[in-house]
Design goal:
By secondary structure, the chain is mostly helical. It folds into two domains: 6-60, Arc Repressor Mutant, subunit A, CATH 1.10.10.60; 73-248, Tetracycline Repressor, domain 2 (Orthogonal Bundle). 75% of the residues lie in helices and 0% in strands. The protein starts with 5 loop residues before the first helix and ends with a helix.
């Protein structure tokens, strides 16, 4: 039976020791999430996998929900880093259709994100509710950044002008998350077997482009908007990293 990590919990523990222990707990939680699913995993299971006591887990994360929300935030931070790199390399990647394609491909290859997003809707809804309750200020920052992103695209003529950008943002997320959540139910209607990830990514990009973006392929608007969008996503990445550190309670 694992014992509390006394060298890391005592007053003599260094910041590096506490951080390393929190990362070990998060790694264990991520592994169990992928293997068993969120609903089956308990804090005791995580403690055993991380080789610490149950109480030690709670020294870092007050609840199971906060533990797994932090696991998800680590995955989101990695995705944001890749998005920012893509924006800098090619300003056209800031378009919502490109963003949807890239996000879909990243979710497809990230077992943590897939375990969260493709788990049962009740669990995902519960985690979102917990996030709003436990991470209210952080969640508001995320919403504010994405709102700013859509307004920036609207101001630069990248979105259809007749619909308010706030409504376009809501539509984007409903299309994206709805597309992912419906995967298990729609696999049965496929007539061709094999890996459809690339085709699906292009299809969701097409849907977003047709429903939200202004027609035309002039590269100038995206180039003009890209610096502001990069700044917005960099601020979001910084805030995600800050929230992860806060939840680790190191």
């Amino acid at each position: 039976m694992p014992q509390p990590d006394r060298t890391a919990t005592g007053p003599q523990a260094t910041d590096a020791e506490r951080d390393a222990r929190a990362e070990r707990i998060l790694d264990a939680a991520a592994e169990l999430l992928v293997s068993w699913g969120y609903r089956r995993v308990t804090v005791e299971d995580v403690a055993k996998r991380a080789d610490v006591g149950k109480g030690t887990v709670y020294l870092h994360f007050h609840t199971k929900e906060l533990l797994f929300l932090t696991v998800l935030m680590r995955a989101q931070a990695a995705m944001l880093e890749r998005l920012i790199h893509a924006f800098r390399a090619d300003p056209q990647q800031i378009r919502p259709s490109a963003l949807a394609r890239t996000n879909y491909l990243m979710v497809a290859e990230d077992p943590i994100a897939r375990a969260m997003l493709l788990g049962d809707s009740e669990t995902l809804g519960s985690l979102i509710t917990s996030g709003v309750r436990e991470l209210g200020e952080f969640m508001q920052v995320r919403i504010a950044v994405m709102t700013e992103y859509f307004r920036t695209l609207h101001e630069h003529g990248l979105l259809q002008p007749d619909t308010p950008p706030d409504l376009q943002m809501q539509a984007y997320f409903r299309v994206f998350f709805g597309y992912i959540a419906s995967e298990p139910a729609t696999e049965a209607v496929r007539r061709v077997t094999g890996d459809h990830t690339g085709t699906d990514a292009e299809m969701i990009a097409h849907i977003v482009r047709a429903s939200l973006e202004a027609p035309g392929d002039d590269p100038a608007p995206a180039r003009a908007a890209a610096p502001a969008v990069v700044d917005q996503f960099e601020r979001l990445l910084t805030r995600v990293r800050e929230e992860i550190a806060k939840q680790k309670r190191t």
